[in-house]
Structure formats: C-alpha cells, structure tokens
Amino acid sequence: MKLYFKILVLSLFVLIGFSAPGFAGDTIKLGVAGAHSGDLASYGIPSVHAAELVVKKINAQGGVLGKTVELLVEDDVCKPEVAGNTATKLVSDGVDVVMGHICSGATKSAMGIYKDAGIIAISPSATNPDLTLSGEYPNFLRTIAHDAVQAQLQVKFATNVLKVKKIAILHDKGDYGKGQAELAQKYFTTAGVDVALFEGVTPGAVDYSAIVMKVRRVKPDLVVWGGYHPEASKIVTLMRKKKMDTLFMGSDGVKDDTFIKVAGKYAEGVFATGPMDVSGNAMAIAAKKAHQEAYGSDPGAFFDAAYAATLALLNAVEKAGSTDYNAVMKALKSEYVDTPLGNISFDANGDAIGIGFSVYRVENGVFVEQK
Prior knowledge:
This protein is of the alpha/beta class.
C-alpha cells in the first residue's frame, strides 16, 4: 500500500508540476489535516478554527506575496490507516504546505507521502520524539515539545512534589501512547522509582475492570497514563467508583476539557502535562477573543499551537518569496515569528525553539497550572 502511494505521488509530480520551484497556481494552498470527527475531534477542530482565523486575517491584509491563501481541510480521524489517504488527497489537490496532522501515528503515516512530494508540514500536537529526532522526516516540524521533554517533567514533578516511590504505567498501545509510556518507564526507573506495572490496554474497550484490578493489587502511589482522553476518563472513573484514591497523571493527550466533561467529578485531582500556559500573551488573548466572536466559545486543545504553526508556515512562504521547499524550510529555521506561543523559530531537527510543558491539575472542574 505504501508503494502504491509513493507511485501515485511521483505521478502527480509529472501531472501538476510539483518539481518546479515557485507557485503551482494563483493561490497559496494551505492544507489542514487532523481529527475533525470521531472521539478525538476535540483535538482537531480547534486547529481548523485556528487556521481559519489566521487565514481570514492574512487575506484581509492582502494575502501572502499578493496571493490569496486557500484552505484545504481534510479529516484523518487520527487513524494511521486513514491518514495516508488524507495526505494523498491533499497532494493531489495541489497543497503547498500543511498544518497537521494531530496524532503521532497518523502523522507518521502521512509524512512519508509529503516528503516524497516535497511538502513541509508543521504539527501543533504530534509529540512522538522520532518524528524529529530520527531524521526520517526532514520535512516535518512542530510547535509543541516532544514526549521525552514531557516524560522528564512528569518524573521531576512526581518525585519532587508528589514524592512517589511506586507507580503503575498504562498505555493504549499506539505510537503516541506506548511511546510516552516507554519514555516514562525509562526516566522513572532511572530516578529510582519502582515501576510495579507496565501494561497496554485496548482503545475503545467497554470495560477496563481487569486492568483497574491489576492496579489495585500492586498498590502504586501513582498511575501514569500514556494515551488519549477517552480511555483515561473511563479508567479514572472506574478507579474512583471502586474507592481507589491512587494519584493519576496523563500527558497532553489528557489535558483536554473533554476529559473533564466525560469524567465529571472523577476528574478532580488528576494531573496532566501540557503546553505551557500562554494566556497572558497579547497575541494569545487576541486569538482567543477572535475565536469567541467567530465560534461562540473558547478555543480548545492545541489552538494556540495550531495558530502558531499556521503563522509560521505563511510567514516562511512570505520570507522565502515562493513556496519552494528549500527556501521555505530555510526561512522556518532562520526566521523568528511572533505567535500566541511567543517569538519562535525551529531548530535543525524541526522542534520549535522557545516553548515547553507545564504540569496541570484538575481543580474545581478546570485544569490549573502547577507552579
């Protein structure tokens, strides 16, 4: 199947002239790919809104290099088996640059297709370290720190603040969740913490009683979850219903208001790492206000990072003077751009410079940054 996609992409080069530098049409085509439906849509929809707001503002100011920016939005449902088709569709539609994907597994499936097509993609949320550190995807960048940074912060907080001695690590077996869990296991073990249980669960299962009972038997001080909020909310709810007061900590896949809405009162006290609070940033304040006016609600997860990724891509095209791959990539890694995350650029690997993670705790129904 992967070979089929590569052949298709190479054929498209010939048909629509991707090999030529400059512009393929009268508009700058910005792809937006991610979960726009399904259980994880709360991660993807905010990114679509961010792109829409940035593009509307830029087009009102004359566009990029005098060209109107056109949005091409495609849904991958955060599933690797769908993301390849999504990427191929964007390539066939003549996309110039891509903001996305959202989930790490889906991002990996899409990135090779973009690489073959000479297309740069910036994700606001895909945190698997290999995406930038392996060297396999030179066309990939992100406006979020990777999971190794996140895992190290979890260990520091859990050992220094929570004073844990024994933990259980659970994960959803996916690229994102399992990768997170393995990093947590590595850093917790190095810190001298007893990892009494390390086990994967099946995403979407109706009942997680078996794994909750395993956790009860090992009596950990803390459960560390690697994965997304749907499974986390079910596991936490079941633990609390069984009168287990064991501490629970997730990563940015849990730091989503949907987790609190689903888990309800059982979400109280849950810890999660996520992008640092930028609510005091002037551009973040303005972007939030624009979202409220346009959509009648506060923005959701990864909105600021998606806003930043969109700005970075379009700024790089402007600085490069074209959509030529090498020129745009050079601009991304040499120019700084003001965003809701602050003034950022990208390092040689494609990781954003000037951003990081914080630890949050659910208090009275909201995530509160822990100082």
